[in-house]
Amino acid sequence: MKQFLFRIAVFNALLFLVTNCSTTKDKKSVVTLSKAGIAEDEEIYIPHIKSERKNYFPETLAENQWVDSIYNQMTFEDKVGQLFMVAAYSNKDSVHTNAIKKLVRDYKIGGVIFFQGGPRRQARLTNQYQSLAKVPLFVGIDAEWGMSMRLDSTFRYPFNMTLGAIKDLKLVEKVGVAMAKESKRMGVHFNFAPVLDINTNPKNPIIGFRSFGENKVSVAEHAIALMNGTQGQGIFATGKHFPGHGDTATDSHYALPVVNASADHIEKIELYPYKRMFDEGLVSVMVAHLNVPSLEPREGYPTSISQPVVTNLLKNEMGFDGLIFTDALNMKGASNFKKPGDIDLEAFIAGNDILLFAENVPLAVDKIRAAFQEGSISENRLAESVKKILRYKFKAGLNRYKPVEEINLYNELNPKSNLSLQYELYENAVTVVKNEAVLPIRNLNQKIAYVKLGEDQNSAFVNTLKKYTDVTEVADVNADSLLVKLANYETVIIGYHKSDKTWWKSYEFTEAELQLIAKISEQKKVILDCFTKPYSLSKISNFEAIEGVIVSYQNTEVAQEVSAELIFGAIESKGKLSVSINDEYKTGHGLTTENLNRLGFSTPENMGMSSEKLHQIEKLAYKAIDGKMAPGMQILVARKGKVIYQKSFGYQAYDGKVKVKNTDLYDVASLTKMVATLPNVMQLYDRKKVNLETTLGEMLPSFQGSNKAGITFKTLLSHYGQLQAWIPFYKATVGADKKPLERYYRKTAVAGFSKRVCDSLYLRDDYQDSIMKQIIDSPLLDKKEYKYSDFTFIILKQYLEKKTGKSLDQLTYENFYQSLGMNNTMYNPLAKFDKSVIAPTEEDTYFRQTIIQGYVHDMEAAMEGGVAGHAGVFSNALDVAKMMQLFLQRGQYGGVSYFSPETFDVFNTCHFCADGNRRGLGFDKPQISGGGPTCGCVSKSSFGHTGFTGTIAWADPETEIVYVFLSNRTYPDSNLPNKLSKENIREDIQKVIQDAVISR
Asked: Which of 326, 604, 619, 621 could form a disulfide with 609, with the two C-beta atoms 3.0–4.6 Å apart?
């Protein structure tokens, strides 16, 4: 480099002597050098000698023999043709396709670079073009964030600026591997990536998101990781845009950008990634169209056709001997300088090997032929590039070319592993910039609003926020009216959503948006989440009033989902800014937040499970629906704290009118015991208000003197107290016609009749005493054995309410549902939800004489006004899973300790297994032998419960799996045979889930 700089200095001095210094171009496009990356000047990289460089594709004897044999058979035109890689599209008509075929057939071009189109069409064209080629073609593509940069129906990986926020470089390498696999599947040999530009100019109109950042070391390390993944799969990576396009303010597609940096700066900053990449085995480089006066003294001379840059600097000084591509020669940064043909000739003379996107190949061939005949181009110079091209064609396997297989192309380009990787990437990229004790949100007992800014979609973000607590979307075109609407909210989450699809457009806040942020943050606690470049925040002059600032980088659905998880503490923040926002929030800055162990969301593979095997759940779900075992259902699977499967099937009723949604509510029946009564009882036990030997007579004085007074707490909860299973209490309140008797019921709520049983039916208040008296007076079973009884939890409700002075629904909400974010779980849901979102449970013809929808199905629970210890709760699968995760985490959830791990262990113990009783305290447990509630394939430490309406919730500490199945199998007639149970649908689904475990 020092020799090169010396030569440049001498050349400049001579140029000064022979030219008029006043004849300079308009300097309006010259960029003032940004200083963002110069802090890294101190780190000087000393390149390895060539022999010590990593070589992904070492030379072989077979390669030499093949190259020589092909080259020796070539005509001059054959050789020159190899220099061209022309633009090809799979979304254009036959005129375009035929033109490419002519170039392949008649001009023996060396390759094609594909642009817009679709994978199947491109595969078909690749095969057609290759079939016409005398020497197999190179196929290249700009796939910086995967094939989706050019092709529809393919996967979009995060932009480089997003990847630059990730500290775990193994994840970036995984991206390289994934992109290489899709390139290989498409018959592509070159992915023109990674971008090595250091984006030191925030106003850069063309690099921006395409750069890994503004820190030269970080850019180099991320680029090396991506390259390692790519080239490790046998696909060639291309570093671009040499010698550095990061400090420009002009798009070289439209004009020639000026880099007004010194050669010393370029050597220390812009070339740093290239030096390291060369030592790590980079195969090829793309040279940019730039005006860099310190490297090329000829005024306005593009670097892409500059011999001082391409040959002297890149090849000689830096010792790069891989393939050298021009950037696309149709770009105005080059084509404005010289005409087609002339620009190609100049590019080749400068030292480039492959002329990309040549606009007129026949003319360019003529120009090169003429130069060759004149002696401007030697045979050795031609052989140097052509043999190098042939060498890499051999390394790419083109000596034994195989057509691209079109069968199953879409599925193989879009494996499920892509989405799994996407979650990992955003979980590691999303960056917390500022946090004044607002992240994660701990207290769910507050009013939270969401305000949208930006023009792009936000549904994944809002939907995920609402999975944690009630979040209200507030909007108004008038800023003052919006502030009025926000008056009663404590925290406001502002989401700034800019489209990824128009990444080159402005990402900046409008003045009105900036003013709105300022006004809201003056009055409310604010979390500002930006789903775009970090630079967007640079226009905010004062962050003092904003408590929380997050950069999510992109507006993808996964980015939105992950960011919402971070806000509520399902994950911790790990990302670091890839570029600076201002002097306070610089590149590398990023705060760590706490993981509160709330349920998050991911893919099965990320949690060690097979999505393919879990897909078998669908078959069983439809078996149940088609067999009239239930009209619809919700099924959820979580593992290791992440929901990995959540789907709804069928309809609320067999009429097929209302499809089941994940947010719909089901009567969970006896799951109520486990998700309402039991956790409250566990808290009392944890606080030593009761112990295992406390008797029922001690718990409730009304049982003193009864045959049940001596039943212990442990025996009661183990269903081992010889209690009867149940009593059909409602039958005494209906007549022979099975209609409610007037002495017990009223059609409207009046004094003494306030227990609402269903629409227009209210039970007399004092009937509760009659129910409890019947339980107290009921005979015990003759034999002491396990007998499941609803009495246990009817009694426990009485105990809890007397002990605490609060009703069970109030107690459960205050102690659990509110702080757990179980906002879709409650008794008597019609007080909050419309009937249309609640699945019906029965067309009652024996008691209430109506469709039961939004009212508890269990008759005794209905007679308690819908609030009972054994039934009455309505919920959805996600909310039930939150409670199950709380149990799985032994009392800890969302940063709150609800009861001690030791208490959970006591309740999850089978205390009477030796006597053949499988039950824990309140929890059901796997069968000891024969049939039971599970598939027989879960661990003995697992626990859960089933429900009469066709429900189950089960958790296994050994596999860390939570399984929830909710249905309304009782609709329309609960007295019909329970086919859902007889066909073992719930158990078979549980077996599928267990079989889907790949790794522990």
From this structure: 604
Phi, psi of 170, deg, nearest 5: -65, -30
Q: Please tell me the distance from the alpha carbon of residue 443 to that of residue 895, in angstroms, as a whole number.
A: 10
Cα distances (Å, whole numbers) of residue 582 to 212, 538, 604, 883: 18, 6, 39, 43
- In single-letter form, the type of residue at position 495 comes to G
Residue by residue, DSSP assigns 382-401 as HHHHHHHHHHHHHHTTGGG-
- Roughly what angle, to the nearest 10 degrees, separates helices 985-995 and 616-626? 170
3-state secondary structure of 948: coil
Q: What is the DSSP string of 100-140?
A: HHHHHHHH---EEEE-SB-HHHHHHHHHHHHHH-SSPPEEE
Comparing C-alpha atoms, which of 693, 649, 533 is closest to residue 213? 533
Distance CA 735, CA 754 (A): 21
757-790, pLDDT tens digit by residue?
Answer: 999 999 999 999 999 999 999 999 999 999 999 9
* Separation of alpha carbons 346 and 500, rounded Å: 37
Chain Cα centroid distance, residue 234: 28
pLDDT tens by residue, 933-970: 999 999 999 999 999 999 999 999 999 999 999 999 99
In the chain, what is the greatest distance between 2 CA atoms, to the nearest angstrom?
Answer: 120
**What is the token pair recorded at 592?**
């760590």
**Can you spell out the DSSP letters for 548-592?**
EEEE--S--HHHHHHHHHHHTTSS------SS-SSSSS-TT--B-
Q: Among this protein's residues, is 96 annotated catalytic?
A: no
Fill in the amino acid letter for 68. D
Task: Please pick, among 142, 197, 327, 664, the residue that the annotation labels catalytic.
Answer: 327
* Residue 35 in this model has a pLDDT that exceeds 90: no
Of 48, 78, 168, 253, the catalytic one is: 253
**Burial classification of residue 353, based on how many CB atoms lie within 10 Å of its CB (0-12 exposed, 13-18 middle, 19 or more buried):** buried
Tens-digit pLDDT profile for residues 483-526:
999 999 999 999 999 999 876 678 899 999 999 999 999 999 99
pLDDT at 26: 33
Backbone Cα Rg of the chain: 36
**Residue 502: per-residue pLDDT:** 78
Strand bridging mode 826-827 / 873-875: antiparallel
